[in-house]
Amino acid sequence: MPLNIRTKAPAFSLPATDGRQISLEDLKGRKVVLYFYPKDDTSGCTLEAQTFQTLKNDFAAADTEIIGVSPDSLKSHDKFRNKYGLDFALASDEAKTMLEAYGVWVEKSMYGRKYMGVERTTVLIDRDGKIAQVWNKVKVPGHAEEVLAAAKNL
Questions:
Q1: Quick check: 142 and 37 in contact, CB under 8 A?
Q2: What does the pLDDT average to over 78-92?
Q3: For the whole model, what pTM was predicted?
Q4: CB proximity list for 113: less than 8 A, separation 6 or greater
Q5: CB 105, CB 116: distance < 8 Å
Q6: Domain residues of the chain, as ranges?
Q7: From 126's CA, which of 50, 63, 111, 144 has a CA 20 to 30 Å away?
């Protein structure tokens, strides 16, 4: 189901790094970037995480929290964060409930083989918990900068 701009973002509550439980309700009043990515410590996902990390202070200045979401375990997220010095939250959705609610758990195809996986997607949520912008099938180069520009203008 595609996400619609200006509609309420699907509620979620997920375990995250630093022993946090992250929920949409707790983030109300702040702008939030949810970036959905397929797998910790793979080339595209690492580049995307590093770029968001580089711009973290700029996002903070725009009162915007960055949260990475994947189906990887918290243990995997912790290793990924430590290896690359990431200091924003990574949420674990091993049950894929949130991934499905946001429409990013999709059938993919590689070398003719079909499988289920995360479609790289970013969602910008406004202070009222509504969807402000959605980027589908994200190409990593230049993406975090584009999201930052949108967050600043929100």
A1: no
A2: 97
A3: 0.95
A4: none
A5: yes
A6: 13-152
A7: 50
Q: Does domain 13-152 have CATH number 3.40.30.10?
A: yes
In the residue annotation, 154 being an active-site residue is answered as no
**What's the pLDDT score for residue 70?**
98
Residues 6+ apart with CB under 8 A from 39: 45, 70, 72, 118
Of the listed 22, 33, 45, 69, which one is catalytic?
45
Tokens 């990593």, residue located: 140
Integer CA distances (angstroms), 27 to 13, 45, 86, in order: 11, 24, 20
For every residue of the chain, DSSP letters joined together read ----TTSBPPP-EEEBGGG-EEETGGGTTSEEEEEE-S-TTSHHHHHHHHHHHHTHHHHHHTTEEEEEEESS-HHHHHHHHHHHT--SEEEE-TT-HHHHHTT-EEEEEETTEEEEEE--EEEEE-TTSBEEEEE-S--STTHHHHHHHHHHT-
